[in-house]
Amino acid sequence: MLKVDGVSFEANGKKILNNVSLEMRKGEVRGLLGPNGSGKTTLLDLIAGVKKPSGGSITVEGEIGYLFQFPERNIFAENVFDEIAFWARNKKMSQINDRVRNVMSSVRLDFNGFYKRSPFLLSYGEKRKVSIASILIGEPDLILFDEPDAGLSKKSMEDLIYTIREYSEKGISFLIVSHNLVFLSKITDKIDILLNGRVEFEGQFEECCELCRKLHYKPPFECELILNFPEIFTKFKNS
Amino acid sequence: MIELNNVSFIYEKKTVFDELNLSIENGQNVAIFGDNGSGKSTLCNIIAGLYPVETGTVIIDGKSIGYWRKNKIPKVGILFQNPDNQFIRYRVIDEIELTFKYITKERRLFKTPADVVNYFKLEDVKNRLINTLSGGEKQKLALACVLSYEPEYLILDEPFAHLDPVNEYLIREILRGFRDELTIIEVSQKESDFIFDRYIYLSDGKIIFNGDYNGFTEFRSDNYDTNEIINWLKTKGINLPSEVQSEMEIIKYIRENYA
After folding, report:
1. B206-211 and B198-203: which strand pairing?
2. What is the pLDDT of residue A111?
3. Domain tally for chain A?
4. What are the chain B neighbours of A122 within 8 Å (beta carbons)?
5. Which of A67, A142, A179, B83 could form an SS bridge with B138, CB 3.0 to 4.6 Å?
6. Within-domain flag for A213
7. Which of B34, B35, B165 comes nearest A217 by C-beta?
8. Contact between residue B99 and residue B127 where contact means Cβ atoms under 8 Å apart
9. A50 in a structural domain
10. pTM for the full model?
């Protein structure tokens, strides 16, 4: 449903993305990891159509929802209800009230406590939850998440993991940028690692432990086990 | 020393703090944890003097924040999560020069903008526009601008959330250089490898834990969950007995039975 084919991008004479290819199927959850400045956000911008590639092509089947890196850039309405309902109203969906309640409970925001408040005056984590809800309500085919976990507490992160699983089962695909490998390992089918504008790795998170350690990412405990007992886990992989 | 005495604060008609008491001694590295919306950022903003309190007092080194502000003495610096919220000017060097305009206090380390540029190694980027910097570079510049005031207390409101581990390490290294003269209060979500002198856990505006590292590990261990790992091991054909629960025990069990 998403095909990125040999995409390059240049800005101010600097090559930011260099021949990047990536394919995703319906309902897939894909992680995108990489150091600051490796081109992760640029790639999402290109897929969303915010920027135009200088080479290659991008095909998407269906609608895209995009959560920006900083939630302040997503929000604009006067109160939380209008903010979340915006896309549903635009798409002329029915039962808007129920839908808003539904997505708010998905991100665990109390409806009565929040619906009248201004999204601009919420805490950072709450703003992020509001912007996530405002995307989920539109039920797009592909959701781009740029660091949805940044600034979320452990508890909120668990809710987010649950929500992503729930929506991907409905057939929504997710492409998720994050610096948190522990978070990614719990939800993704596959991980891509970007380094200096190139896809350096693509595969299961269990296979990228060594590269992640080189990049100083804190590996999930599973990775520690794999690195500690390579003979056991390669044995099981082969059998 | 920072002292909050019976501080109450109402935000958007909602009581965030009700008679909160807290004191932070000089030279301590303090971490503040808590769920989203538990009042962490509000507490930071109150200490930094950005939010005036409803009742109670906030005393920094024996005087109110208002006193220090009136005398243009920057006691408390704050670094926001999103560095874009901090910048006023367009060019890097203009932003640094701005930090020299309004402060009258005697400076020890940074006497000119050039000192700041040299110390933080910003020579290569100093003539660039701020909005062309990468996330890591922006956070470094924001930290440089805050430290340029030479505050005695530094509040970090989750500045590492969007940084990769290498950039986080670089910023922490810079902070280590100021270890002796700075009291650092850090809001965090990641329970990282970094060990603080003191841990505070906020829940709905109340301090439910206030103590050292050992106490905090114990406090958090109740919530610790290895179920996901145990299930993952099952898919690999390793079934653990029910008494094996913690990460240490899992490693020990695998070493003894499989390796």
Report:
1. antiparallel
2. 95
3. 2
4. 37
5. B83
6. no
7. B165
8. no
9. yes
10. 0.83
